[in-house]
Amino acid sequence: MSGIAIFVKDSEKAKSTAEELANFLKGKGYKVKRILNRPPSGVSPNIRGYRLMVVVGGDGTFLAGARLASRYRVPLLGVNEGRFGFLTEVERHEALDVLRELLAGKLKKQRRMMLSTYLYRGKRRKFLGNYLNDVVVSKSAIARIMEIEVFANEKFMVHVYGDGVIVSSPTGSTAYALSAGGPIIYPDSENILFVPICPHTLSNRPVVLPADFSVRFRVLSPDRACFLTMDGQEGMYLKNRDVVEVKRARRFCEIYVHPDKGFFEILREKLRWG
After folding, report:
1. Most buried among 30, 65, 250, 271, using CB within 10 Å?
2. pLDDT above 70 covers what percent of the chain?
3. Mind spelling out the 3-state secondary structure of 199-220?
4. Of 270, 255, 269, the residue nearest 110 (C-alpha)
5. Which residues in the chain land under pLDDT 70?
């Protein structure tokens, strides 16, 4: 009996949808494991060998589910029970029909690049995790200008004075990076996007880098003046002289895409194009 995980936003609407999907899948003979998206408890659910993870929620729930599913190389399908639903492409009313097509082998998968993140503090190097969307260094509570040196593939790139910097995957190019003035990159491309946030030097512009580059930030601001955030969900304060490195992860995230809506249709619908 194959296993299917359902990763659920902690809301009544999402739980109701998850219950409906679980009953449908059990009726098809699948073992179903429901996982509630709550703050990390230190214990990670094991979904090794599962055929699929269905994410029921919004984009934040999808990002959390992607970190878990990619660890076990389990593909995802997103069902929207959030506000925006850019990554969760399937709406509730069409979820059962889309699942039927998926289980019949009619849906296509996209392989999405992820970002590995490391922190260098003194002589110590710490792996922070793999992330689907973006890694951000931004100002902490006090509204003062931030100072960061940026290196691309060990070569000095730019000295940023401003509100922060973003390193984004192609999937994340339609998130915070887009709001900060970055370009949209087709989601199954392999590139690294660097975007300065409100730079004091107006000539500082976003840069699209090859996927095999690494990007390093060296913090020149005082301790706790900068905050590191990964996928908008995990984070920590940085110290003066800390170095953050971001590069393409060895691990990818596989996503089943909507059978009828293409990427540009979703852009038109969600971002009000045209």
Report:
1. 65
2. 97
3. CCCCCCCCEEEECCCEEEEEEC
4. 255
5. 1, 39-43, 142-143
pLDDT for 16 equals 96
* Domains of the chain in sequence order: 3-108+257-270 (3.40.50.10330), 114-250 (2.60.200.30)
223 is annotated as an active-site residue? no
Distance CA 216, CA 152 (A): 7
pLDDT at 2: 82
* Sequence-ordered list of residues with C-beta below 8 angstroms from that of 23, at least 6 positions apart, any chain: none
> Is 134:177 a contact under the CB 8 Å cutoff?
yes
113-161 pLDDT, tens digit each: 999 999 999 999 999 999 999 999 998 876 688 999 999 999 999 999 9
Per-residue tokens: 8: 């659920």
Tokens of 175: 């998130």
- 3-class secondary-structure state, position 264: helix
The structure's pTM equals: 0.93
Residue of 228, 224, 28 lying closest to 119 (CA atoms): 228
Question: Phi-psi category of 260—alpha, beta or left, where left has phi over 0 and alpha has psi -120 to 50?
Answer: alpha
Q: Which residue in 59, 163, 231, 242 is the catalytic one?
A: 59
134-139 sheet: strands from edge to edge = 207-210, 191-197, 164-168, 134-139, 226-230, 234-238
